[in-house]
Amino acid sequence: MDFGISGKRALVLAASRGLGAGIARALAAEGAHVLICGRTEERLKANCAEIEALGGKADYVVADLADAHFVDAMLHAVKEKLGGIDILVNNTGGPTPGLAEEMDADKLYTFFQTMVVRVITLTNALLPLMKTQGFGRILTVASSGVIEPIANLALSNTLRGALVGWNKTLSSEVASFGVTANLLLPGRIHTDRIDQLDGANAKRQGKSLEEVRSASIKSIPAGRLGSVEEFAAVAAFLCSAPAAYVTGAMLRVDGGAAKSL
């Protein structure tokens, strides 16, 4: 299938590693010019070099979602390095693990800014360009926790849940302009983040990392963790031209793990 995004311009947030880096590689493989951002310049440079070695086109900008000037920095980079925008992939790091009763005002405010406010503000700032040209893809990476809350991830379940109502509302407002807005929900995709969370659960439960990992895999019908490449392939499709009639959706990539309908 031709994804129809060759020459399109894509901004991928938090793409120094993990899911963001994988999505950037997948979009570049389809011919998109990708602009990646993150906090670690060395990793961003390496990712761009890898993409370009495979014939893709990539640029990077060092930026931190926690910075109050993040959105302004992104708008400047989009103008200078891409000359416009067709695809926006909203990806953020996850918050610290913990129970609901451990959430306090400082933690809520800090992560709300990075995981919700920056995402919405940046999207709103780039929307006029997409609407004017009659094409836009807004893809927000959330978590399967918005479908089935994940134990010991109370902050993530709470804050990513806020993106569900926002995305659905936005999708209905911009659909007539040729702009789609979807949520992509990773389950157990093997990244450094999964290793971190398994380590935290092992400590909380007084078990070994191997015991926690084994129990987790047993709960997945597919019988294994997913790969970044598998997840990124779904992301690339949702950003494609053939996916023009898919909007306001939440798509799980979880090996069948979520038990809800």
From TrEMBL:
One of its GO terms (molecular function) is 3-oxoacyl-[acyl-carrier-protein] reductase (NADPH) activity. The keyword Oxidoreductase applies. Keywords: Oxidoreductase. Pfam families: adh_short_C2. It comes from the Bacteria. Its EC number is 1.1.1.100. The keyword Oxidoreductase applies. Belongs to the short-chain dehydrogenases/reductases (SDR) family. This is 3-oxoacyl-[acyl-carrier protein] reductase.
